[in-house]
Amino acid sequence: MKEFELVSWGEKEQEYIKKYLSELAEQKNNAVLNRDEDTADACWRAMEAIELNVTYIKAFQNIKDQKFREAWCELEQCEIIASFISNNSSEDFLLHSRVSFISEVVKKLQSIYPYCVFASPEFTVGYQTCSICGHKIRPRNRCSHVKGKLYYGELCVYHQHDISFKSISLVSNPVQKYSVVHKDETLDFSVLNYLMSIVDSPFELWDIEWTTKVYPAAQFSSCAPDQKCPCHSGSSFSDCCLGKDEIAIPHVEFVFNRPVPNEIPDNIFPY
Ligand SMILES: [Zn+2]
Ligand SMILES: [Zn+2]
Question: CB within 8 A of 130, min separation 6: which ones?
Answer without folding.
Answer: 137, 142, 143, 145, 156, 158, 159
